[in-house]
């Protein structure tokens, strides 16, 4: 399998190489052949090629079997008047690959749950997955700007809604058989369409329960009763906000993986944390989010569930017994934690 | 002063009459003349007049000095195919009155902080105010719906942004002198306009610090470091989500007031909780959110800050020493809590 690696900015290169190290070891242990090719994205790509998603990267992405991404962005490229921004590389990649489903599992590990801002009785039993629509909505709608005003259009087609909602139902079938669809159907036309499509799709999954939630209520329920949810599916912008809110529950952003999948080609796997330029290059970054993303890559893009499970078990082992990085209250380096996972993989 | 009372649905009438009782007592004690006129809104208005904001209500709103609202909505009127919905009454009222600034203070009382899902060390010292833009954005933009797709347009003019941002800076001047402006300027054109206007307005307030936050980061920071914020200003949809998320921090929705102000006429004051039809008519509702909204009414629409302070002190006293409603861990009725506030007002 050919894996494209996009190290990106800040701590991106450090965590990406941790992910690659784990994938290499898996290949060796299980007798697979993985090839790795690094390409530029984000601020790094702007600096080197003047483009946050250069043509060489695009071509490599389209030919890849799977993509492992570090992180993108940083204050260096955040001038509000800049005409080209690192995030554009991410958005262009999502569109190019047609990865319409952004999947973010949220599970609390006993040792890190203590770091959550929520009281332990609230987070007990949390085990949910967000599916955020990733290639439609207001992110990609028509935009205008004049001296006196600006507009952004949110548009959804039935097809865009249906495919991501189906994805949620398929996943729910393998889990607790409950889908929560989040919208703002009391105000938005796109949300009313969303709700009607979700309701129609649900008829094909009589074994799965469908519940509708308004986005504002959902923002509350994520804090008051997060353990009540299984699969949560929502549109792009709501998903952006709610997944970040939910990620805080885990105690550290450094632990959470994500997958962007559903397109005709490769999926993109990346930790949910940002590029954290303040700690870049110091081996302080937590590699576990990226390593768990690599596990998702094995499962979803390479069809290697056993290999994925080995990696996940290794991370669990390290979380339980190992010295962790600073964000998790330890003082281990990125390298040391990666080393511990590699050892636990054997 | 002439006060229009909109009891609305569910527990709305119960909490509204608690607010009226407190306002009557303030009038008596301080020698003011307040007149109260009840009008229909929401589901109640649909049932009685087939319109969530009937013409009699509209006329009364336009002539009022201030408006006290209970709550609107309920499952009875939530059929997704309904052509008329209770919430339309709220939206139409906001537009009619031009109340562009929705103000939601968030403060934790020691006794109720224990009910917060957040750990006490996180909520310590929280004292912030949200200013949500209330009459623009995607709520009021052009909408389309066809067989195959739907659209909602988010539009903001410079003027709409400037007036609400100025409101935030004026308020910050009377507080901790910090404004946090929330947007999604890395993706949306309306957000880039928002950010540029906020930056320009800030130049008129050299004594106030302006910070920009992306909405997804803000959703995290509200949980990880809520005490760092003073005045938070944002557009309509982001404000809807973030204010509801933030409201959970207080431990009970039943305590939090809101004011919708800035229009040429009267302001609207209402608790942030919903109509809670499951407990309606049983004297179980917490009246304190509405009573604190009445205090905001005294301060902002009637220019009676001393009277407002008396009401707030009375609520503080009851929170400290009184038997509270069920949502706050007590077993007092709506009536009993209202009675206790009235006693403490004397
Ligand atoms: C960088 C930004 C465009 C992006 C988004 O909003 O999609 C990020 O916040 C994310 O969630 O991946
Ligand atoms: C009922 C609904 C239209 C309303 C809104 O979203 O504005 C409510 O959620 C609120 O926040 O007041």
TrEMBL record, chains A, B:
<feature type="site" description="Important for catalysis">
    <location>
        <position position="139"/>
    </location>
</feature>
<comment type="subunit">
    <text>Homodimer.</text>
</comment>
<keyword id="KW-0464">Manganese</keyword>
<keyword id="KW-0460">Magnesium</keyword>
<keyword id="KW-0479">Metal-binding</keyword>
<feature type="binding site">
    <location>
        <position position="104"/>
    </location>
    <ligand>
        <name>substrate</name>
    </ligand>
</feature>
<feature type="binding site">
    <location>
        <position position="216"/>
    </location>
    <ligand>
        <name>Mg(2+)</name>
    </ligand>
</feature>
<keyword id="KW-0963">Cytoplasm</keyword>
<keyword id="KW-0100">Branched-chain amino acid biosynthesis</keyword>
<comment type="pathway">
    <text>Amino-acid biosynthesis; L-leucine biosynthesis; L-leucine from 3-methyl-2-oxobutanoate: step 3/4.</text>
</comment>
<comment type="function">
    <text>Catalyzes the oxidation of 3-carboxy-2-hydroxy-4-methylpentanoate (3-isopropylmalate) to 3-carboxy-4-methyl-2-oxopentanoate. The product decarboxylates to 4-methyl-2 oxopentanoate.</text>
</comment>
<keyword id="KW-0028">Amino-acid biosynthesis</keyword>
<dbReference type="InterPro" id="IPR019818">
    <property type="entry name" value="IsoCit/isopropylmalate_DH_CS"/>
</dbReference>
<keyword id="KW-0560">Oxidoreductase</keyword>
<feature type="binding site">
    <location>
        <position position="244"/>
    </location>
    <ligand>
        <name>Mg(2+)</name>
    </ligand>
</feature>
<keyword id="KW-0432">Leucine biosynthesis</keyword>
<keyword id="KW-0520">NAD</keyword>
<feature type="binding site">
    <location>
        <position position="240"/>
    </location>
    <ligand>
        <name>Mg(2+)</name>
    </ligand>
</feature>
<feature type="site" description="Important for catalysis">
    <location>
        <position position="184"/>
    </location>
</feature>
<feature type="binding site">
    <location>
        <begin position="74"/>
        <end position="87"/>
    </location>
    <ligand>
        <name>NAD(+)</name>
    </ligand>
</feature>
<dbReference type="InterPro" id="IPR004429">
    <property type="entry name" value="Isopropylmalate_DH"/>
</dbReference>
<feature type="domain" description="Isopropylmalate dehydrogenase-like">
    <location>
        <begin position="2"/>
        <end position="341"/>
    </location>
</feature>
<feature type="binding site">
    <location>
        <position position="132"/>
    </location>
    <ligand>
        <name>substrate</name>
    </ligand>
</feature>
<protein>
    <recommendedName>
        <fullName>3-isopropylmalate dehydrogenase</fullName>
        <ecNumber>1.1.1.85</ecNumber>
    </recommendedName>
</protein>
<feature type="binding site">
    <location>
        <begin position="274"/>
        <end position="286"/>
    </location>
    <ligand>
        <name>NAD(+)</name>
    </ligand>
</feature>
<comment type="similarity">
    <text>Belongs to the isocitrate and isopropylmalate dehydrogenases family. LeuB type 1 subfamily.</text>
</comment>
<feature type="binding site">
    <location>
        <position position="94"/>
    </location>
    <ligand>
        <name>substrate</name>
    </ligand>
</feature>
<dbReference type="Pfam" id="PF00180">
    <property type="entry name" value="Iso_dh"/>
</dbReference>
<dbReference type="InterPro" id="IPR024084">
    <property type="entry name" value="IsoPropMal-DH-like_dom"/>
</dbReference>
<feature type="binding site">
    <location>
        <position position="216"/>
    </location>
    <ligand>
        <name>substrate</name>
    </ligand>
</feature>
<dbReference type="GO" id="GO:0003862">
    <property type="term" value="F:3-isopropylmalate dehydrogenase activity"/>
</dbReference>
């Amino acid at each position: 399998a050919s894996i494209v690696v996009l190290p990106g900015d800040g701590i991106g290169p450090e965590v990406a190489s941790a992910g690659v190290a784990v994938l290499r070891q898996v290949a060796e242990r299980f007798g697979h052949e993985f090839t790795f090719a690094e390409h530029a994205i984000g601020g790094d790509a702007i600096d080197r090629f003047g483009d946050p998603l250069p043509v060489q990267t695009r071509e490599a992405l389209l030919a890849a079997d799977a993509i492992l991404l570090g992180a993108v962005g940083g204050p260096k490229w955040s001038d509000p008047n800049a005409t080209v921004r690192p995030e554009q590389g991410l958005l262009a990649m999502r569109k190019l690959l047609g990865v319409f489903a952004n999947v973010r599992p949220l599970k609390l590990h006993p040792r890190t749950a203590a770091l959550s801002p929520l009281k332990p009785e609230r987070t007990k039993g949390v085990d949910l997955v967000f599916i955020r629509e990733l290639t439609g909505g207001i992110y990609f709608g028509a935009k205008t700007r004049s001296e006196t005003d600006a507009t952004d259009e949110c548009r959804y087609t039935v097809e865009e809604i249906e495919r991501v909602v189906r994805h949620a139902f398929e996943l729910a079938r393998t889990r607790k058989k409950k889908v929560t669809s989040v919208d703002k159907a009391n105000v938005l036309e796109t949300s009313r369409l969303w709700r009607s499509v979700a309701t129609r799709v649900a008829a094909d999954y009589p074994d799965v329960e469908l519940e509708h939630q308004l986005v504002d209520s959902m923002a509350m329920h994520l804090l008051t009763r997060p353990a009540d949810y299984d699969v949560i599916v929502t549109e792009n912008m709501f998903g952006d906000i709610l997944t970040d809110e939910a990620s805080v529950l885990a105690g550290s952003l450094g632990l959470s993986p994500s997958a962007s999948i559903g397109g005709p080609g490769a999926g993109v796997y990346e930790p949910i944390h940002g590029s954290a330029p303040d700690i870049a290059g110091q081996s302080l970054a937590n590699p576990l989010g990226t390593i768990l993303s690599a596990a998702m890559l094995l499962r979803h893009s390479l069809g290697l569930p056993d290999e994925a499970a080995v990696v996940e078990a290794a991370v669990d082992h390290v979380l339980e017994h190992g010295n962790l990085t600073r964000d998790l209250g330890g003082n281990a380096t990125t390298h040391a934690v990666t080393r511990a996972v590699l050892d636990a993989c054997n």
